[in-house]
Amino acid sequence: MSRASEILKFHEAFPRASQPGIGFTTRDYKAGDRVQAHPATDTWMRGDRYGTVKKTTRNSVHVDMDRSGRTVRFHPDNLIPSD
User: What is the dihedral of CA 47, 76, 66, 81, to 10 degrees?
Assistant: First the structure.
């Protein structure tokens, strides 16, 4: 699947994130949630795509990444909820 089709699929699945100024907030995530980094992030392009939410702050979501084991801070709009 190409990067463009993945982004299109994301915006079809999460129309709220497609609207400027609305997007996701830190309230949409809680510790223990599984997430995927957005395809436009460097983390995703380096192959570190999935992780578990460690904590949320007022402006960011801290995610323990599966592949590298690092904890990475993301803006909520740069995460995709995963099942």
Answer: -100
Q: Which whole number is the average pLDDT over 25-30?
A: 86
pLDDT of residue 20: 53
pLDDT of residue 72: 96
- As given in the structure block, the two tokens for residue 38 are 């957005």
Dihedrals phi, psi of 53, to nearest 5 degrees: -65, 130
d(CA 9, CA 54): 26
Is pLDDT of 23 > 90? no
Q: Counting beta carbons within 10 angstroms of the beta carbon of residue 77, is it exposed (0 to 12), middle (13 to 18) or buried (19 or more)? A: middle
